[in-house]
Amino acid sequence: MPAKTYPAQLPRHLVERAVATALEEDLGLAGDLTSQATLSPSASASASLNAREPGIVAGLDLARAAFSLVGEGVDFVTHVKDGDRVEAGKSIAEVYGPARLVMAGERVALNFLNGLSGIATLTRAFVDAIEGTGTRICDTRKTTPGLRAFQKYAVRCGGGANHRYALDDAILIKDNHIAVAGGVAAALRAAQAYAGHLVAIEIEVTTLGELEEALEAGANAVLLDNMDLETLRKAVAFNAGRAKLEASGGVKLERVRAIAQTGVDFISTSQITMAAPPLDLGLDVDIH
């Protein structure tokens, strides 16, 4: 029986800091001029946040913060949770409060929700494509600057797994490190001598010869970079379970199942964070 997994969660301080920065960018020094010019200060609004296409929701905490930080009196009531699959026409949340504030928070809320839900939706497509193979889909550090924590959170909402977050939480020895260090074994042994006992070490290889060298040097995790399917199968057979194997490079949705069927443990792809189209979610407002 697989281990129980718990929902992902975003730290509140990260959410509020990012949303405050986004609101400052959007509202500037004078606030929402359009709403101030056209809406009475006493007008109230009710709005439904609706899915206009099917997908996986991610980013509700950011949307909630967008409406709470614009001012007092806005209620954000959700009907689904991050990670839930929704169909077109589904009401995701309802927003109630002063009309000017609802309108002021709308775009920031939707920008976060649309983008993160798009990542979660594409991630789920990759995860579904390899169902039953035992392989896991991972992201990379190829994220939008300033949004990495949220984009990696969206990957988890879509059923994917996170690779390292940054340069300081794991060691990934890539081809340029190997070239400067003097070879696969030299780079790996240097990393093993440097790292603390809780720091994970992975090394990138491009050939079966380099894989053999890495395994002989005691590699626990090896990234198989841009290998074709036949080479991946040979790498899995040669490895014989000694190290965790990650396939990366040129991973597209249409071929991800074939990669998984080679027997690798993980497949990492930047597609899920860098190429995900936004999910079409919209706020339908009634001013009264």
What is the topology?
Layout lengths: L11 H16 L5 H6 L5 E8 L3 E2 L3 H10 L5 E4 L6 E2 L4 E8 H31 L6 E3 L9 H10 L13 E3 L1 H7 L2 H11 L6 E5 L2 H9 L4 E5 L3 H11 L4 E5 L7 H5 L5 E3 L2 H4 L6 E7 L1
Parallel strand pairs: 6-11, 7-8, 8-9, 9-10, 10-11
Antiparallel strand pairs: 1-5, 1-12, 2-4, 3-5
Helix pairs in contact: 1-3, 1-4, 3-4, 4-5, 6-7, 8-9
How would you describe what is shown here?
The chain is α/β, with parallel strands linked by helices. It folds into 2 domains: about 10-120 and about 275-285, Aldehyde Oxidoreductase, domain 3, CATH 3.90.1170.20; about 130-275, Alpha-Beta Barrel (TIM Barrel), CATH 3.20.20.70. Helix content is about 40%, strand content about 20%. It is built from 11 helices and 12 strands. It is elongated, with a radius of gyration of 23 Å. It starts with 11 loop residues before the first helix and ends with a strand.
Write a short abstract of this structure.
The chain is an alpha/beta fold and 288 residues long. The protein contains eleven helices and twelve strands. The radius of gyration is 23 Å and the shape is elongated.
Give the number of domains: 2
> Could you give the count of β-strands?
12
Q: Which radius of gyration do the C-alpha atoms yield?
A: 23 Å
Structural class, please? Answer: alpha/beta
- Figure out the total of helices: 11
CATH-wise, what's the superfamily of the largest domain? Aldolase class I
Which architecture of the largest domain does the CATH hierarchy give at level 2? Alpha-Beta Barrel
CATH topology of the largest domain: TIM Barrel
Q: Approximately how much beta-strand content do the residues carry?
A: 15-25%
Low-confidence spans: none
* Largest beta-sheet details: 6 strands, parallel
Q: Can you identify the CATH class of the largest domain?
A: Alpha Beta
Helix content: 40-55%
State the separation between the terminal residues, measured CA to CA.
53 Å
Question: What's the order of the H and E elements?
Answer: HHEEHEEEHEHEHHEHEHEHEHE
Integer average pLDDT: 96
Q: What overall geometry do the principal axes of the alpha carbons give?
A: elongated
